[in-house]
Amino acid sequence: MKNPKQLLIAVCLAYASHGIAAPLPTASPEDVGMSSERLERITSMVTAAIDSDEFPGAVVMVARDGKLVYSRNLGAQNKAAGTAMREDSIFRIYSMTKPIVSVAAMMLVEQGKLSLADPVSKFIPAFADTKVGVESQDASGATVLELVDPDRPMTVQDLLRHTSGLAYGTLGPRTAVKKLYLEANLFSQKWKLADFAEAVAKLPLQHQPGTTWEYGHSTDILGRVVEVAASMPLDRFLEQNILAPLGMKDTAFRVAPAKHDRIAEPMPDKYTGKTPALIDVRNPVTFFAGGHGLTSTVGDYLRFCQMMLNGGELDGVRLLGPRTVRFLASNHLNESISKGSYYIPGPGYGFGLGFAARLEYGQSTWPGSVGGFYWGGYAGTYFWIDPEERLVVSYMSQEPVRRQYYRNLLHDLVYQAVID
Questions:
Q1: What percentage of the chain exceeds 90 in pLDDT?
Q2: Residue 227: what pLDDT?
Q3: Distance of CA 389 to CAs 216, 253, 414, 415, Å?
Q4: 175 contacts 100 by C-beta, under 8 angstroms
Q5: What H or E segment, with its residue span, contains residue 91?
Q6: Hey, how many other C-beta atoms are within 10 angstroms of the C-beta on 147?
Q7: Which residues are CB-contacts of 376 (< 8 A; sequence separation ≥ 6)?
Q8: Which of 168, 315, 336, 401 has the fewest Cβ atoms nearer than 10 Å?
Q9: DSSP secondary-structure letter at 334?
Q10: For 169-176, which contacts have Cβ atoms below 8 Å and span 24 or more sequence positions?
Q11: Is 211 helix (H, G, I), strand (E, B) or coil?
Q12: Residue 57: is it exposed, middle or buried by C-beta count within 10 angstroms (0-12/13-18/19+)?
């Protein structure tokens, strides 16, 4: 077992060997109240998963008090090609796009260009005509879908907290409305965001706006709202206002050709033999999907998390005011809204504006602090921010099937390493 000083030197040398800078200043774990020996249990867990072919590889970073104290790139970046995982490997982050787009929306709120109370139809007029689907059965037992007016307009807040009534179509019970979503081919990557928003507006809502938490295309539509409010395409707004200012140089809607050798890929599932089909990020992109389109590195996302932990500022660059960060990381749901059978954040959590918000020390199956917030991505990426413990964690792999199991383990192993 390396001593704390040796571990710190190893982290610094790993970055120097690739000629890249660490995403945050480095420190010994003991300098910030964590245990080097206990953090190495993360390495053992990930290595065991790789050795048993649960996933090809992963990158994990842990920072406390603004200092990077644990960074490991383990296993294969592309097992079929025989390339090793790098600390700057690039991953499809899927739904970890949502928090970044949510921050973009809140920046516009701070600029007075957007209000959470605004109806979505103010920016996308087609939503003024959107109906709500109500299912019933006729005398023969056949499903009848009636379209009714919404009780109130869908708002920007509804998009941010997933109470818009919009669905994905793939989660939870397969209803008549969700069948319409699937038939509309909304998961195609050939859309343009403006056309996509128009197509979604023509579909009925699964729920009355503001009544139910339903994970769906809300943040994709929010991305279009950002475009209209900012008078700028979403990809350019994110680059100019979030990614470039934070130094997130490897985060984008596609991977440039010069970086293709850093793209992490999935491997065939050990139980089914099937390789998960993930988004093609090598070719030019026309669909800037606010809900799932970005690629990134663990280090880039760690900087985004640290900015949020700092109350909206990093390295002298301020994106949001501290009270805005506290507002978006707070629970925006009441109990009835979060009672759904497919409530992804789970027990002990509410939902804020783009992030799940921790309400209890208990209830959840993983440890965490009240006031913490998190989210993850379909292909195996994950992060959380814990203001009470002054802690941020960024984790990325490309393994969709067992992602939740390893997220739980990671929570356990990070918190057991906090010793002050």
A1: 86
A2: 98
A3: 31, 32, 11, 9
A4: no
A5: strand 91-92
A6: 12
A7: 95, 96, 382, 383, 403, 407
A8: 336
A9: -
A10: 169/216, 171/215, 171/216, 171/342, 172/214, 172/340, 172/341, 172/342, 173/341, 175/133, 175/135, 175/206, 176/133, 176/135, 176/143, 176/145
A11: coil
A12: buried
- At 107-159, the pLDDT tens digits run 999 999 999 999 999 999 999 999 999 988 777 878 888 999 999 999 999 99
Burial of 97 (0-12, 13-18, 19+ CB in 10 A): buried
Residue for token digits 């867990």? 45
Which residue type does 305 have?
C
pLDDT tier at 337, thresholds 50, 70, 90: confident
Span 196-248, pLDDT tens digits: 999 999 999 999 999 999 999 999 999 999 999 999 999 999 999 999 999 99
Residue 252 DSSP symbol: B
Q: Which of 187, 132, 122 is nearest to 157 (CA)?
A: 122
3-state SS class at 273: coil
Alpha-carbon distance values, 211 to 10, 153, 166, 246, 347 (Å)? 51, 12, 12, 36, 19
* Cβ neighbours for 223, distance < 8 A, ≥ 6 positions apart: 101, 193, 234, 288, 289, 290, 291
Q: Read out DSSP for 111-152?
A: TTS--TTSBGGGTSGGGGG--EEEEEE-TTS-EEEEEE--SS
- Considering only CA atoms, which of 111, 132, 48 is closest in space to residue 413? 48
Length of the chain counted residue by residue: 420
The one-letter code for the residue type at 331 is N
